[in-house]
Amino acid sequence: MDILITYDVETITPAGQRRLRKVAKICEAYGHRVQKSVFEVVCRDTDKVKLVAALQGAIDPTRDSIRIYRLPANALDNVEHLGLPRHADPRGPFVI
Predict the structure, then answer these.
(1) Residue 41 belongs to domain with CATH number
(2) 9-62 tens-digit pLDDT
(3) CA–CA–CA angle 21, 26, 29 (5° rounding)
(4) 3-state class of 51 per DSSP?
(5) Is the CB of residue 9 less than 8 Å from the CB of residue 81?
(6) Is residue 80 part of a domain?
(7) Within a domain: residue 88?
(8) Residue 82 lies in a domain
(9) N or C terminus: fewer CB in 10 A for the chain?
């Protein structure tokens, strides 16, 4: 499945800054960063369940927001892109 993850984590406090780093690390383990707080992820249903659970455990739901968009199959193969080129194939390997 193709998904797009976007997040907004409050970073005014040191705890918020830690949550932001944790959310980014979790997302990096599953997909490719395409903008500062946006990740493209190709995964199986079981991996998505693990990803969502990890993200839920990393945020403060009263201060932070994560959006997970489930895209049509192979949607990430047909992204229209303007500006700096994409550096990673959404289905290719990635390094954590």
Answers:
(1) 3.30.70.240
(2) 999 999 999 999 999 999 999 999 989 999 999 999 999 999 999 999 999 999
(3) 125
(4) helix
(5) no
(6) no
(7) no
(8) no
(9) C
